[in-house]
Amino acid sequence: KLLILGLSVPVLVLAVLGVAVFLIPTDRVAAMVEARAEAFLRREVEVGGVSLRVFPRPAVALEALAVGGATEDAPPLATVRRVLLRPRLLPLLSKQVVVDEIIIDSPRLLVEVDSAGQFASAAERRVEDAKEGGDATFLVRKIEVRDGRLGYRERDTGTAVRLDGYDQRLSLSGVVRGGKLAEITLEGELS
User: Fold this and answer.
1) 65: exposed, middle or buried (Cβ count in 10 Å: 0-12, 13-18, 19+)
2) Complete edge-to-edge strand list for the sheet that includes strand 96-113
3) What is the DSSP letter of 76?
4) Looking at the predicted structure, is the pLDDT value of residue 125 above 50?
5) Greatest CA separation found in the chain?
6) Nearest partner of 108 among 147, 71, 142, 73, judged by Cα
7) Average pLDDT score over the chain
8) For residue 19, what pLDDT is reported?
9) Closest CA to 45 of 66, 63, 60
10) Taking Cα atoms as reference points, which of 84, 85, 81 lies closest to residue 108?
11) CA 66, CA 69: separation in Å to the nearest integer?
């Protein structure tokens, strides 16, 4: 009886999580992601779709992401066909964010500079805008970029350079103290 009880608890927890995924409105998740990204980037952000999964591993997929350009008429700063995140849930209980994998499919990034060499399309974020927060550690074991494209353009001269079809594999870890990034380590390769 003890064995049956011991096995039924994890099965029950997984079943509850599975049902919860179906009850979470993905349009509200997309709206939340858009609002937070817009506040951080100070650009219009669109998320085409969201899907959530518990089995066999927890995952969140964001589809058809777009970050608006410097003006309404400007080309987008970035587009991404799909981002897949595979987080671990238990480390959150000890203020650790652990993500096994982030896969970024077909990102397109446009960097524009003006005559002074200032980034015209880069998101400006002032330090005073950051809110106070707690302490945490984070680890992303694998970040994989597939079929990326990076464009660089000088707006005044029209000079443009483009790098197509790059793939990248990275790992990222860090520490947040008092709501501010205290340590960060990024390792990887570009192909």
Assistant:
1) buried
2) 45-53, 59-67, 78-87, 96-113, 136-154, 160-177, 180-190
3) P
4) no
5) 77
6) 147
7) 81
8) 55
9) 66
10) 81
11) 9
